[in-house]
Amino acid sequence: MKIALVGVGLIGGSFALAVKRRRLHVEVIGVDKNSDNIQKALQLGIIDGEASLEEAVKQSDVVILAIPVDALTSLLPQVMDLVDDGQLVIDFGSTKGAVCTAVEDHPKRHCFVAAHPMAGTEYSGPEAAFSTLFEDKIMILCEEEKSGDEQLNLFQEICKNLAMRVVNMTPKDHDLHIAYVSHLSHISSFALSTTVLAKEKDEKHIFAMAGSGFASTVRLAKSSPAMWSPIFRQNQKNLSGALDTYIAQLQQFKHVLDAKDAEAMESFMKEANKIRPIIDGIK
Amino acid sequence: MKIALVGVGLIGGSFALAVKRRRLHVEVIGVDKNSDNIQKALQLGIIDGEASLEEAVKQSDVVILAIPVDALTSLLPQVMDLVDDGQLVIDFGSTKGAVCTAVEDHPKRHCFVAAHPMAGTEYSGPEAAFSTLFEDKIMILCEEEKSGDEQLNLFQEICKNLAMRVVNMTPKDHDLHIAYVSHLSHISSFALSTTVLAKEKDEKHIFAMAGSGFASTVRLAKSSPAMWSPIFRQNQKNLSGALDTYIAQLQQFKHVLDAKDAEAMESFMKEANKIRPIIDGIK
To answer: Of A18, A147, A170, A178, which residue is the least packed, with the fewest Cβ within 10 Å?
Structure first.
């Protein structure tokens, strides 16, 4: 199987490493506008060669698009123009509404599978990729009914190879829920970081006093602005609503804190404690 | 050395297990109003016996107070009334202003060392205790000048045994900085949890879509309301200020998000990225 890997960073790179480990006879052709990334991906064994987008797409069975979501929506229609009926194009974008809309009327829509692997870390680039990132994770699949049978079968087979579980969702549901369980977490971390940095000009206090709890809560503040800015913009409406709710919850807590209302504070925290069985179930 | 351990939960229990592992001839007498906790602590080898507060204090070289901060401020003066000049009393409270004020004029003030180990997890109770919790962590020491030389020497020796580094700080500085690097993280997690739970009545979406990033950010929402409510109340003024700044940061981000101002969003995130070397240094 020949794969055109467009974007050889954390997600694309981890996918390629996993497929290579799980399947025989896989050749990966890298496409990346960043030539440093191509060199690193070659050295790390993520890709076996490089090519232009057109060359790579033409010669491959599967095209994987693992690039920032703004580049994705503009590049996907071009890729779709290049593919033949038997080819499979999969995107790994973190928003699904805009990308599905971008090709909704494309004559080759059946060649495309809209997907989002629920996997990632706060790092980026080919050197951050590792072959087990996708293992036992969820792969969200949107608009299954618009993909061809041949394409869906191959997609399902690849997900099975990778030990991923496929979950169907509409692009609208995906974008709404992901705003709450992923995008909002990132913003809460980014803002926690800027809050603490602004206060603690003298870093030694942070070094002395910050423990593993702070490190855990602020970890996502290390995430790549270049990757997240387009995601937040594409999902602005849902995320803005999630942020409104989050700010309202914080204001409610501040209200009972300022009133030193022990009972109300404890009932707020007890409600929050209900997340425990849910996060204990997250791998 | 005989230790009276008042509070046999995560912090007190971990301290006792560590001291027992690192020092010869240590006997720990447990004091806890919760008799279940006493039984568990006996079974887990955290304590070697139990006694009333008065009995335990009378027969010990060192008294450790590892209880919620509201109980601490009321119990500490009683303990101080019971001790003799050669004894050492250490508290592990997460706020330091109120506890230092509670004994500032006590005739035995020199027997007391105000401390806060920068260590913890989101769990509580004796079964959550483990002997390496304090290892390589910071121990904040407040008002060193008010403790006696004999007491300070023994305190420093114990910290050294536990591979902890002692850092001096005023209670005022401690309470201000801890609001930012610990208390605020907890509230950002509690509020993230209630936000997501309120939205996602149907838990299956959370199960499907929440990844390790969400789990990390919301982890502290599992923390004990009974422990944190008194901490937040005692540090209400500092925490309220920290929450104001945090909410303002979130509102600022929402403002540039709603304007879809890519440049401003990225510069916000780049500023947040500066936390990276700091959290990479946290053990």
So the answer is: A170
Q: What is the ipTM of this complex?
A: 0.90
User: Can you give the pLDDT at residue B9?
Assistant: 96
Residues 144-203 of A with CB under 8 A from B: 167, 169, 173-174, 177-178, 180-182, 184-200, 203
Chain B residues within an 8 Å CB radius of A218: 185, 275, 279
pLDDT (average), residues A108-113 = 98
For chain B, which residues score pLDDT lower than 50?
Answer: none
Q: How far is residue A13's CA from residue A262's CA, in Å, rounded to a whole number?
A: 50
Chain A residues with beta carbon closer than 8 angstroms to that of B208:
118, 138, 140, 167, 169
Q: Which of 3.40.50.2020, 2.60.120.10, 3.30.420.40, 1.10.3660.10 would CATH assign to domain B174-280?
A: 1.10.3660.10
Spatial neighbors of B277 by CB under 8 A, at least 6 apart, are none
- B148 backbone φψ class: left, alpha, beta (φ>0; ψ -120 to 50): beta
Mutate to test the interface with A, among B193, B203, B256 (most CBs of A within 10 A): B193
Which CATH number applies to B2-169: 3.40.50.720, 3.30.465.10, 3.40.50.300, 1.20.1070.10?
3.40.50.720
What does pTM read for this prediction?
0.91
Residue with tokens 């020796």: B157
Inter-chain residue contact B207 with A258, CB threshold 8 Å: no
Is the CB of B120 less than 8 angstroms away from the CB of A213? yes
The H or E element spanning position A212 is helix A212-218
